[in-house]
Amino acid sequence: MKAVHKRSWGALISCYLLGLVSIGIMLFLIRAYFNKHACLTEDKRRQIVQTVKQGVTLLNEELQEIIDPVRDLARNLSKDFNNKAPVIKDLTELLQKGETLEAAGIAYVPHEVEGEKKLFYKYFLKEDGEIKEHDRDPYYDYTLSEWYRKAESEGETWIDSFYEAASGRLVVRYIMPIYRFDKASGSRIPIAYLFVDISRRQLMHAMSDLDMGGVSSYTIIVSKNGDLISYPVEAFTLKYQTLTNLSRLPGKSQLSNVAERIKRGGQGMMNYYDDLSDESFFVYFAPIKHTNWFFVLFSHRTNLFYDTVLRQKLMQVGIASLLVLLFLLILATMSLRGTVKRGWIISCIFSFFVLSLLIFQLYMSYVTSQKIPIGDFIGNRVDLNRFSYFIERRNQQLNKPPLIQVPTGVWIEYILREKENIMMSGIIWQKYDIKTTEGVDRTIGVLNAQDLKLEKLYEVQQDGVQLVGWRFKASLNIEFDYLTYPFDSQTLTVQLFHPDFEKNIMLMPDFDSYTLAEIVGKIGLGKVYKEASWVIKNSYFSYQVNDNATDFGIPGSVRQDQFPNLLYNVVITRDVTAPLIGYVFPMVIMAAILFYVLLEASITTVSLSSALARVSGLFLATVFAHQALRSGLASLAGTGTGGITYLEYLYFIMYFFIMLTLNFIFYIHFRRKGDFIDDAVARGLKFMYWPLLLGASLIVTLYFFY
User: Fold this and answer.
1) Percent of the chain at pLDDT above 90?
2) Could you tell me which of 314, 363, 558, 602 has the fewest CB atoms within 10 Å of its CB?
3) Is residue 132 classed as helix, strand or coil in its secondary structure?
4) Measured between alpha carbons, how far is 389 from 532 in angstroms, rounded to an integer?
5) How far is Cα of residue 622 from the mean position of the Cα atoms in its chain?
């Protein structure tokens, strides 16, 4: 009795120690999880602040390079204000040197220039690298314009986005007065206003080198009252002009909150949610020196659920929680009389939580596997314009010829598996600017197609753009990964390119030809005829920037260094209903029958031959089910799966437990009194059947999906 009492106390103390250790591990892992969560968020915030500081510094330098020459020119012209001849030369030189300038001009105060009755105005535009003088409409009185009146009242100033009647453009203008000294009054009097117009596109080019933490992040420049100075989609700047007007677009209603916050001045950070594309952003803004403008960064806020390290730490917390749960179950059932009832309660509850953790891991992996894009994700016009700016800057650094951009669209009608390839058919169209694409062949290629058939459907020319559409049928060489079957996610990629290797032709998604709902959803997909077992999750465009090891026999080939290939991607997952019913459900039934055989084995009335017959039948059923799985995978993969799949490991676990049950049956029938395995231990093995089986399955799941 004393020995039993000492053994009970020893077991109790060991249980408490293991429980306390488990609780300590769980608390440590929970703290590590939240620390990592906070660290990722804080790192993101620090990166945003650093990016905005770099952007503001860069813009300050760009604007200072504009301001200094204009001030110097204004100072020089003040010394000889009656001589108009040097003005034309000075203005053209100013435009030639200023990369971010698109126009320059001078407007004299009425009657201040000798020989002129009232007005004297010169305006020069930079078009396609050439500087041309714009002829003033004789009825155009610049003294009545808003920009001139503001210059009269404020002197040196920036004029936010406004419509310039002289050129018919929406411009951003910097104005510097030219003075003469009036001896009678003893003060300086303005005699003219020197001004330059800033290129919005060049401002965006200047921002393209900033590390914004992903292509879906972007920057804009707005004035304090919400005027759009620069926006990644130039057409939006011209069409909507203010942040408030832009907020009326579908999904962008929260931009009005951003505009209101900027009006209050200073710098700060806030959250922004686009409810159409279902994307969240950190928005950080800071004022720009010399102006009343603000630099605004929209940094894509990735759902931390999709961070691999964070998911792993969350699963670690779950595993530690299982150990704590086991300890709590033991404590909670200590008051129950009888070890059988207590054992079954612990076994059932613990098995349920192991199963829940296994399902949660599968769910996390199944969902997040669809969120990893191939290459640089291009989800909308903003992403496209920012990427284009980056490529244009890179082309300048590599001394490549001017970029020829060809909008390209895709519409898929059917996707089928044929032997080892994917057959895809639909419509591809391209838009060629007639002026910039002279001498460019109207054609398209698919890099990963073993066989491509193109049939021209239509060719339309309108407003200087030639639209060409083809029906295509391609046999794509795409390898599937079946190791995680049936929870696998596959990406079908169409690698589009232009066959002209001598010209610097960049294909770009033709977002103008899609609706907003398509752009944020399944772009380029209608009612697609596909395999019954496939579920199309989404589709998207992306770019893959390649550094090729060859010049393809063309010296100085534009495709050798940093050449962007346009990818059209369709993400498919599998309808897991059929595989679960066909392969997993039979395994669950066999595991339940095996458990029944294990329970029955200790009953003396059951003969050895009867028990062996049941185990043998289960073994054969497992082998046949496993073979059916192998045959099914072979029919899908064609040349093989490339390794042992996830479901096969579960069948190996079943083989192992069948072997254990068989050994247990032999021992029960041939044991002798006093053998090591007594009745209590035998019951314990039955209690541990489901926890061990599900635990082994959880380990395999973590191996594949952790």
Assistant:
1) 7
2) 363
3) strand
4) 42
5) 43
